[in-house]
Structures are given as C-alpha cells and as structure tokens.
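Sample 3 of the quickstart, ligand 2-acetamido-2-deoxy-beta-D-glucopyranose:
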Amino acid sequence: MANGYYFTFLCFSLLWSLFGFSFGHIIPRFPSSAVRAEQLSGSASTQNGLYRTEFFTQILDHFNYNPQSYQTFQQRYLINSTYWGGAKKKAPIFVYTGNEGDIEWFAQNTGFMFETAPYFKALLVFIEHRFYGKSVPFGGNEEDAYSNSSTLGYLSTTQALADYATLITDLKKNLTATESPVVVFGGSYGGMLAAWFRLKYPHVAVGALASSAPILHFLGLVSPYAFTNVVTQDYRSESENCYRVIKGSWKQIEDTGATPGGLELLRRSFRICKNYISTGALEGWLSTALLYTAMTDYPTPSNFLNPLPAYPVRKMCNAIDNLGGGNDTFAKMYAAANIYYNTSGSATCFDLDDNSMSVGLGLEGWRWQACTEMIMPTGGGNEESIFGASTWEYKSRATYCEAVYGIEPRPFWITTEFGGHSIEVVLKRFGSNIIFFNGLRDPWSAGGVLKNISDTIIAIVAKEGAHHVDLRFSSEEDPEWLKHVRQQEVDIISSWISQYYRDLMVQ
Ligand SMILES: *[C@@H]1O[C@H](CO)[C@@H](O)[C@H](O)[C@H]1NC(C)=O
Ligand SMILES: *[C@@H]1O[C@H](CO)[C@@H](O)[C@H](O)[C@H]1NC(C)=O
Ligand SMILES: *[C@@H]1O[C@H](CO)[C@@H](O)[C@H](O)[C@H]1NC(C)=O
Ligand SMILES: *[C@@H]1O[C@H](CO)[C@@H](O)[C@H](O)[C@H]1NC(C)=O
Ligand SMILES: *[C@@H]1O[C@H](CO)[C@@H](O)[C@H](O)[C@H]1NC(C)=O
Ligand SMILES: *[C@@H]1O[C@H](CO)[C@@H](O)[C@H](O)[C@H]1NC(C)=O
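Result:
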C-alpha cells in the first residue's frame, strides 16, 4: 500500500508530484520541531520571565579561512542566572544545545533544567542552533539564508557544535567563570548534539544528558523498519482491534478513492475542507497523526504540533474501539484523527493543504539537513506494520535532494565524523559522562543507545516513556517511574560535578 508520513507540510505537493505518495520517500520529523509559530507568540518568555535574551556575534564558518568564512551572524541565547552560585564558587553552568527550531520553545519545554537549577546552583543557558529561530545568518534574512546551497552550506552539525563551543567559552570568559563546570543538555536532535558535544569538546563540557537522542539512527546502522515497528507496537499494545482497524484502513481508503465519487465520500467521512483532497494526502494526514502521537505518548497533556491529552495513543485506540466491531472504518479513523487534530474542538474542517504550519518552524532548515548529513532511515515495514508493507530506499531521498537542491546527500558522514558502529566497544575505552535516556514507546528509541557502555556512559531506558519525556516540566500526575528517572539523572550529574571539583583540587 501507499502510506506513511509527511515529508513536511511545506513540500507536500512537490513530493507527490515527484514520486506519488509512498512511505519510503517521506521523512518523519522530530516532534519538537513541529511546533506552530503561534504557540510561541506572546510566549512564556516575557510573561513568566523564564530567561533573558542575548545575542552573540558568531563566526559563519569555523573550518575555513576563505574571506567569506569571516562573515558573522547574530546568534541568540537565553540565560537565567537566578539560581547561579556564581563564578567564585565555580558553580555549574547548564547549557541546552539547541535543536532545529526556535530556542524559546525548547527552553519552555525543558523544565528539567529549571527545576534542578536551584539544587545545583546552576546558571542556565539555552543556545539557538544556527539557521533557526532568530539565529539566521546572512543578515537574519531567512529568504537569503535558505535561498540555495551556497548559503545553506553553512548549516551543518559540525558548525553548530563549533558555535556552541565558541559561545560557551566566550561567555565563561566574560563571567570570569572559566573554572565552572559546564553540563550540556538536549532532547531529540538537540540530544544528539549534546552527546556529540561531550565527545568532541570534553574540555568545554564535563558531561551530557542526551535525551531521546537517536545517534544510531543512520544508514547502515539501523533497520529502516525499526522505527515503524515501534509505532506498530505502541498501538498494538493498547488493543489488537485498534491495530487491525488502522492497518486495514489504508486499502479501504485507496479502494474508495479510486471509485467515482469516492473522494467526495472520503472528504465527507473525514470532514476535509473543500480546497484539496487526494487519497495520498489523506493517508499522509492520518499517518502523521499516528506517528506524532506515538512519539509524544506522554502520561500528561502536551502541546506539540497540536494539543494532546495524556496517554494519547490509548485515547485514539479507545476512540476506535468504542465504535464497536462494525464496518465503519472511516468513522473509526476519523474519531482517532480527531484526537490529534481537534483536541481543542475548534476545527471546522481539516485542511490537507495547510501551509500555515510551516511558518517559522525551520522546516526548510531541517529539509536541508535531511538532504545532507541527517540520513535517518525511517519508514517502510514488513507485513505486520501498522502502515502495511513497504520499503525504504535511500535512492528516493537522493533523487529528491538532487531535485530540490542539486546536491547529493552524504549518508555516511555523520558516522564517519561522530562514530556509531560498534559504539559499545568504541566508547567503552573512550569518552565518559554521558546519559542516554530513551523511552521505548518513542519510535526514535530504535536508534538510541539502550545499553550501559561503561560506568560513566549510562543508558536509562523507560519502557513506558516517550520522546524526551524526562526533560519536560514535572507535574503532580507524573508516574513514579518518571520521577525515578529524573532522580537518577540528578544523581549522575551530581557525581560528574563532584568528580570535577575533586579533580581540580588534586591539580
Ligand atoms: C529564572 O527561572 C526562574 C524559575 O522559572 C524564575 O522564577 C526566574 O524569574 C527566572 N529569572 C529570570 C531572570 O528570568
Ligand atoms: C544563492 O543565494 C544568494 C543569496 O540570496 C545569492 O547571492 C547567490 O547569487 C545565490 N547563488 C546561486 C548559485 O544561485
Ligand atoms: C562577551 O563580552 C563581549 C564584550 O562585551 C561581547 O561582545 C560578547 O558578546 C560577550 N559574549 C557573550 C557570549 O555574550
Ligand atoms: C466494508 O466496507 C468496504 C468499503 O465500503 C467494503 O469494501 C468491504 O467489503 C466491507 N466489508 C464488510 C465485511 O462488509
Ligand atoms: C471538532 O470538535 C468539535 C467538538 O467536538 C466538533 O463539533 C467539530 O465538528 C470537530 N471538527 C471537525 C472538523 O470534525
Ligand atoms: C545502567 O546502569 C544503571 C546503574 O548505574 C542502571 O540503573 C540502569 O538500569 C542501567 N541501564 C540499563 C539499560 O541496563
């Protein structure tokens, strides 16, 4: 069947005109980058006073000495010194290594740092990733910065990490806090950056908490099916009926769509707006709901692309199961989709051609990254897959990237630069002080580090957990396992910092 995920909302139509709709061509994004711009406007920053905003003059190109390499841009960072013990006490500095999106959103969703800062007397710093949010090179003009590969060429993981090292070092100097230990934090892509930062810049950070960081989710390291398998398991674990209804829906949608008047029937069944419908778009829309709900299957309400209730996978399956055993698959799928797209109850119809969501989301930035370094095979699956059987092919990605940017991806650069093969053997004798957290309900956990590697490279695995659930603000409804995970993380980070102070004394 044809099924699967959006690539992005933005290049929807482009994709389908290139390939038709098929699973393997689609690139699932991390949920954290799928935040609506309006969720940030009038954001908590000013109202709640979570941080102060600063800008740093950052160098465009850390690795070359051509004249244009010396160009600079304004890099945004957020800072909160309320709890800091100060430079004299060598009190710690906690740095969030920003992801592919507006840094304010990550700060507002990383309660773990705010909530542990008083205990550690830590300074909090959140650094925005280049090309996202307000940290856009080429005069801060997104149109220029995203215009073509000669400008986007400066968007890479190595440049981003070098930005963080440069900024942190300069900030410590300004604060006369050169001896304060720095701990880096990140979730999702930001977690990958945090882990890589610790490995590359051990002289800048004493440790890293890398939450839901799929550093092994690269071509040649992971089965492309692994991701889908987790999604399948998530729904199946709620109910076998739910799984079977979803799995069977694709063919019914396609069969119906192919009949005269079928698209109209689908439009009415799913309350799709009049402007645009196709079977592929409908399947993409449904798959997106299933996929992001699986990633964000949190025990408390959340608000990523859309507001979601607690335990949303269970809610979706309940919606399906409650409609009984009849042959009204579309009503069941509509009910499930409604949980994802209409929790607020304010949707009048669903727009399959909605580009508004792309505004300010840095979608173009991630598309570029997914076409250069971030070749993370996700999609395709076997007969058991909730999306039906299909294959993932690198070739499709390459064709797409050639069409959009006129470039060829470098699928093996990340593993060449940062490693990944035999990671247990390699990191056993190299590197230290990294926590890899993964929740097994998160499809990205398929590419996470799930085993302890050494005494100081620790895997914390929560079988009930979803995408970087540990970093979220705590709530009274948090289950015991989640409280325990956070306590474990605090204890481990404490041990790194104590060790660092002891090491300084012996010098
Ligand atoms: C820092 O964070 C704390 C906790 O959220 C908040 O109470 C305080 O006002 C913040 N400080 C600044 C300068 O934003
Ligand atoms: C790429 O975009 C920049 C900025 O908009 C422009 O100056 C340059 O001419 C473009 N290069 C190519 C090859 O199109
Ligand atoms: C450090 O201070 C200099 C001089 O005031 C300033 O230009 C620079 O932006 C500061 N660095 C950071 C990281 O804020
Ligand atoms: C259920 O409905 C679909 C689409 O209308 C139809 O193809 C299928 O035969 C029906 N199945 C049963 C068991 O009635
Ligand atoms: C969204 O939910 C509300 C309240 O349950 C409902 O009245 C409305 O019809 C739903 N919208 C769509 C497009 O289904
Ligand atoms: C790794 O070791 C810690 C104790 O240091 C333990 O709590 C944790 O469960 C271990 N992780 C795994 C995946 O076995």
